[in-house]
Amino acid sequence: MGETNKQVPVTVLTGFLGAGKTTLLNRILTEQHGKKYAVIVNEFGEQGIDNDLVVDADEEVFEMNNGCICCTVRGDLIRILSGLMKRADKLDAIIVETTGLADPAPVAQTFFVDQDVADRTKLDAIVTVADAVHLSTQLSDHHEAEEQIAFADVVLLNKIDLVDESGLEVVKERIKKINPFAKIIHTTKCGVSLSEILNLDAFNLKRILDTEPDFLTSDHDHEHDDDVTSLSFVSDTPLDMEKFQDWFSKLLQTKGQDILRTKGILDFTGENDRYVFQGVHMLMDASPMGKWPEGKERNSRLVFIGRNLESMNLKEGFENCKSA
User: Fold this and answer.
1) Helix H segments across 77-223?
2) pTM higher than 0.90, yes or no?
């Protein structure tokens, strides 16, 4: 590689209260997996990290006896990440836990906004732990639960031993209606191989599109009550970069609070590279990701996950970005 400043992958771990995040974190911090992870948690205490496992504790950073380190987010996330970067060469990954009632967007946005953080880390994936027993009720009663599903690249559907087959199907359908693009993994007591949730490069669409070219195309059913929905658009006509940037920046300025996630792969007139595109609320990152694969049809695919999408004239806006 030869990079002195390697970017450390960061996984944002979210999920509603009681879903099983702490069980998963304790596994990461105690299993002899041979990796060096840094876990940033909101707080220790009550049902937090098992303090008996902590060695060499100072005020904010806790060394775990399997070589992992654990930090608390009582301090500012950017400050803690900057501190961790001093030992970046010793870290395989960083995991940031959000509180059970939190919208994961502000944490994810940190990796877009702060240049030092962006230079040294890369957002790898948002992983949401969901309680198979209670998720349907939580989705109806708490918009935060919906947002956590909407933002997810991976959903760990936990406690599946406590629901029957038909109940499980109902919950999965609900998840897919909110976010058709998240990978769903069934677990009991968060028993998942860490390779299924860490170092996925899920925020890099290139790898996903290479293995799953249809990732950004999906049929959507709008006949449901969920507050959060998704819409996707495809264009075989190249887009005009200036028109697209103008439309999209105005859209995010005016409707960004309702647009939870955007993902896309774009074909711009006069550009040999395909552009990959990720957004969280009003922040977005678009960058070239290499030439279009030989023999593969060039087209643009754009996905929105959010609230009130039907009222934003997205189809018309997207159509107007096509090159004349």
Assistant:
1) 77-85, 105-113, 115-120, 135-141, 143-151, 165-178, 205-211
2) no
